[in-house]
Design brief:
- The chain is an alpha+beta fold and 150 residues long.
- The protein has a single domain, classed as Roll (Nuclear Transport Factor 2, Chain: A), CATH 3.10.450.
- 23% of the residues lie in helices and 24% in strands.
- The strands form two sheets. Strands 3-4-5 form a three-stranded antiparallel β-sheet, with helices on one face. Strands 1-2 form a two-stranded antiparallel ribbon.
- The chain starts with 27 loop residues before the first strand and ends with a strand.
Length: 150
Amino acid sequence: MSTKKILSNEDRDLQNVSLQTSIARVYKDIDLTFEKNSSTGDIYKKKDAAAVKQSIKNLLLTNNLERPFNASFGANLNNLLFELSTGESSKTEIKENIKRAIAKHEPRAELLEIDVNFRSDLNDVSVSVKFAIKGMSETVTFETTVSRLR
């Protein structure tokens, strides 16, 4: 007994044509300030670029072993400050940590550029990360300064 596919008139050539579909992705997250929207009473939400940027920020400012049950989460930048020097090897190590963390923990971002600047007089490092959001034509730059507490 043979099986016959029943297709509508619009679908008659589906077996001969390759179909491409695109799904519009919406990236959502809650705002970590936990401020309440006065009109709805809900916590504010972050969408698309803002959600991914917030995720990158959390990833970069988290050290390894800070997240319970996920010891490798984070870029470990604060721990590198105790080994702070202005040499290229330190810049390379910071860039590699950022690349590794984003590749492992943030699949929504495609890394484009990392810029690291040491300010030894202030005992801190300035980091700028430029990334594209997958599935969108938007590029975002996140800048932060990591400094040692005395």
